[in-house]
Amino acid sequence: MVVNQKPVAIYDSIANEYTKSKDLPFRIYIERPTLLKLIGDSMVDKRVLDLACGSGYYSRLYRDKMRASFVYGVDISKSMIDIAESMECPNTSRIRYKVMNVGEMDVAEPIDHLEKFDVVSAAYLLCYAKNPDELLRFCEVIASNLKDGGKFVTLSDNPNENLAKYVTHRKQLEKYTIIKTLLNGVSTPIEGDTIQYDIINTDTSVATFTISWWSIPTYEWALRQAGFSSWRWINMELDVNSGQDPDYWSDFLTDCPIIALEATK
């Protein structure tokens, strides 16, 4: 992994491996139900902007499972968008994809001059900000595309997680298929530190990428500056209907690598 490699280059190179990771147990039994619970039971007649949509995994769920009236998926990686579009039927009218860098989107008006959205989803977008200004820019783009009273939902790297455990208990944690490495050489992160993620697929292929560590106060500063009126952090939960053994997932959930966020404009 080249630490200073741009996200577009990283995700173009791991598009297939990252797409495979959507079928991993932590995605299916924890990540997905937690995010969809934030969205609510139904998106009927609602329009959704899915930023950092990757290969369209959640975009399709919003349309097909949650019954959103329209979904617009945006990602920086052309390879990811190519995969997303390959999974669609010709002339699909309720979903559209576009290759675009969220950090370069206009904050003065919504994307493509469309009307504002009821929901903006941006799974794992915010932790890609390389500095506080870019983090603020991401939040401003989200706010500018969201209706007043609209909902922003995201998943992100958990700033509260004890990263030292990946040094002391790495082998035990590999069963959860996420390994994190703090690249500053110590176990306590500071603002802007780089964290490497290795997500291990069932076929042993690995999706490797890096994100930036930001504290809860820094995230909340950006939300406040961008015009969000309220927000809450939500711990990940195991789907009670999953049939999974809660004891198996106990270590993962007690000090989880992922956290969810809901904010209202």
TrEMBL record:
The keyword Transcription regulation does not apply. Keywords: Methyltransferase, Transferase. The keyword DNA-binding does not apply. Pfam families: Methyltransf_31 (PF13847). One of its GO terms (biological process) is methylation. One of its GO terms (molecular function) is methyltransferase activity. It comes from the Eukaryota. SUPFAM superfamilies: S-adenosyl-L-methionine-dependent methyltransferases (SSF53335). Residues 45-168 form the Methyltransferase domain. This is S-adenosyl-L-methionine-dependent methyltransferase. The lineage of its organism: Eukaryota, Fungi, Fungi incertae sedis, Zoopagomycota, Entomophthoromycotina.
